[in-house]
Amino acid sequence: MTWKPRLIALDVDGTLVDGENVMSEAVRSAVHAVREAGIETVIATGRGVPGVMDAADNLRFTEGYGVASNGAVTFRYDPEVELLDVVTFDASEAVRRVLEHMPEALVAVEEVGIGFRLNKPFPDNEILGQFVVEDVESLIAEPVARVVIRSAEHSRDEFTAIVRDLGLTGTNYYIGYSAWLDLAPEGVSKASGLEYLCGKLGIERSEVLAVGDGNNDLEMIEWAGRGVAMGQAPDDVKAVADAIVGTIDEDGLVAELSKYV
């Protein structure tokens, strides 16, 4: 290939690490190689800031840029976090509508750079950072950058059917591989976060490589100059990608990054 990116945006879960948050040495080495080649390497994830920093630690990065919370938060770390852009929204109506149909659901709102405020504890290691338990009305009383809703009582298919029938408006939402819903401000995605960051860095979208595997990666993969889907990605994500690589278990990211070193 003669094309070479100036910025590489990498999803975390399912792209950099597996379901146990384990990063292979092959993936770590490949990411270091592109960064050492002078390519800006950005973590772009649905995770909050603490989750991005966990991935940065896993990569053994001490400085760089992150797009967190599905694009609602853009920041720089060196190693201290400097918030560059935070987009918030009123999630109260969307949360109430979901809870009408799933009253036992777990709800978490992000405290940017800190962790989450929750109505009930989440399963271990599903969200990272500091946690404070509050009632739902307190959680949604003020605008937030991100809301996570998790149901332990529904299968992913049941959960997806309920959420899609709600006709949520005023938000972007993403359904995960389990009964997991991310609510974000309308118009906000990893693509919008990267567009903001590229504007600050003087990089064109045509100069961006983006790699991911989930529904929340679709806009980013479609937006980037070259968008790549991991082998286990859903079909609609693969459909907008310029290329498809191996699965996370096959270290699929390595084959793509090795082209630019």
What are the defining features of this structure?
14 strands; 261 residues; 6-stranded mixed β-sheet; 8-stranded mixed β-sheet; single chain; alpha/beta; globular; 9 helices; 25% strand
Structure characterization notes:
By secondary structure, the chain is an alpha/beta fold. The chain has helices at residues 25-36, 49-59, 92-101, 136-139, 156-165, 190-201, 218-223, 235-240, 252-257, and strands at residues 7-10, 40-44, 64-68, 73-77, 81-86, 106-111, 115-118, 130-133, 147-150, 171-175, 180-185, 208-212, 226-229, 243-244. The strands form two sheets. An eight-stranded mixed sheet has the order 5-4-3-2-1-12-13-14. A six-stranded mixed sheet has the order 8-7-6-9-11-10, covered by helices on one side. β10 and β11 (180-185) form a beta hairpin. The mean pLDDT is 92.
In brief:
With 261 residues, the protein is an alpha/beta fold. It contains 9 helices and 14 strands.
The main sheet comes to: 8 strands, mixed
The N- to C-terminal Cα distance equals: 11 Å
Q: Give me the strand/helix succession.
A: EHEHEEEHEEEHEHEEHEHEHEH
Spatial ordering of strands, largest sheet: 5-4-3-2-1-12-13-14
Annotate the secondary structure layout.
Elements: E1 7-10, H1 25-36, E2 40-44, H2 49-59, E3 64-68, E4 73-77, E5 81-86, H3 92-101, E6 106-111, E7 115-118, E8 130-133, H4 136-139, E9 147-150, H5 156-165, E10 171-175, E11 180-185, H6 190-201, E12 208-212, H7 218-223, E13 226-229, H8 235-240, E14 243-244, H9 252-257
Parallel strand pairs: 1-2, 1-12, 2-3, 7-8, 12-13, 13-14
Antiparallel strand pairs: 3-4, 4-5, 6-7, 6-9, 9-11, 10-11
